[in-house]
Amino acid sequence: MIEFVRQKIVRTLLMFSLIFIFTLCTDDPTSIGDKLIPDDDKIKVKTLDSFTDNFGQSFSTFQKDSLYYGTSRRILLGNYENLSIEMLLGFGIILPDSIATQLEANEVSLTNSWIEMKPNYWIGDSTQLSFSVHRIFESWSSVEFDDDTLSAIKSSMSGDVLLQNSYEFTDSVITIQIDPTIVNDWVMSLIDETIPENNGILFSPISQGGIVGFEGLNAFPLNEYVTLKMIFEKTSGLSIDTIGAIPNIDIHTVSSTLPIDPIGSSILQSSSSVRGNLKFDVSKVPADAIINSATLELFIDEANTTQGTSRTDTVAISYYELNDGKLEANEDYGLVPLFDRENSYSGDLRIFVQRWVNGEPNEGMKVMLSDENRSASTIAFYNTDPADSLSPRLTIHYTTQE
Question: Quick one: which of 81, 305, 313, 381 has the most CB atoms within 10 Å?
Fold first, then answer.
């Protein structure tokens, strides 16, 4: 009985101790220690918002001289609005030793061939697509491809070699045939050095209503690539094999006119390399401030925006520096992504704002679509309408001792 009473007393004391501790922990700390800390030593958390604090800002667009498409994960073809895109492919044909040996002995021949293309991107009208196909005689490389390369190819390429009656187009596959003597030349050049080498083909768009995209060499999976199919038969007429060849080289090339910015908005466009210059005056942020976050929001002008079947998921922001009087993006500071939020793109720029607050020259930022070499998106952002809360918005949270 005595032991039971002792345990009950211990439990009661423990309960009151916990209640006392909990009361101390939940008491307002300012009522205990705030008066002991000098005002000059207190850390203050503050916010500046360009919508209410009237930051000076500017947002303009420019067109880069050219884009490099040799690393694109998607190859494009078509005409749409201000864009015209051609596609070049070279097929890496590899024959089994058995077929190569029989070809040399004239025991087999190529009897049929066709090209299968599986679209993975559309913008504009996906129900109509027409193009011409041209044999390329000039050697080319996607790594060193430029305007001179394209001019040399076009000056010597063949006329249209597409067999128009072979064209079949469904939602998932486009099937075409080209002049069979071309594919036969490609095959025979593997065993006969006197036959011109395989430099591939150029697709030139004819229809005006849309742009289609296909899996590029820098993407996966392998089974989605444009594929050349070839059927070989013995001289007896028996089919011996169907061989598939995927591209070993690909690229698309773009010609465009500059899109016109709508009143109150700035257009960024993939493929045409139209980018933006964005600048905020952040001089209202104290020089000793530690930037906790700096959220940038760009609001979409939907009426002047067109995106394809794959939306642009991010906008890339880079830090500008002035070098010899020319604005250049400092890639050492990296790219800050603004993520798609349906009606806007937003992200945290504190790494850039902190540099400006620390005294580095504020030359603004470069704004570009992250998929500009693999899509044909046109995105308009509001730039001059703060009254409707649609202009670019920068919200800065910072700590300071002021």
Answer: 381
The DSSP result for 133-183, as a single string, is EEE--S---SSS--HHHHHHHHHH--SB-B-GGG-EE-SS-EEE-B-HHHH
> Among residues 220, 284, 230, which one has the least CA distance to residue 91?
230
299, 390 contact by CB (below 8 A)? yes
Question: Is the bond leading into 221 cis (omega within 30 degrees of zero)?
Answer: yes
The single-letter code of the amino acid at 240 is I
| pLDDT tens digits, one per residue of 221-245 | 666 899 999 999 987 777 678 899 9
Collapsed DSSP state (helix, strand, coil) of residue 370? coil
Q: What is the Cα–Cα distance from 73 to 80, expressed in whole angstroms?
A: 20
Q: Over the stretch 45-101, which tens digit does the pLDDT of each residue have?
A: 899 999 899 889 999 999 887 777 888 899 999 999 999 999 999 999 999 988 888
- Render the burial of 49-74: b for 16+ CB within 10 Å, e for the rest: ebeeeebebebebeeeeeeebbebeb
The domain spans of the chain are 44-65+273-400, 74-255
Q: What's the chain's Rg over C-alpha atoms?
A: 32
Across 338-374, b (16+ Cβ under 10 Å) vs e yields bebeeebbbbbbbebbbbbbeeeebbbbbbbbbbbbb
What does each C-alpha distance from 17 to 10, 14, 217 come to in angstroms?
A: 11, 5, 70
Predicted TM-score (pTM) of this structure: 0.84
Provide the H-helix boundaries in 35-167.
50-53, 97-104, 147-156
Residue with token string 């501790």? 21
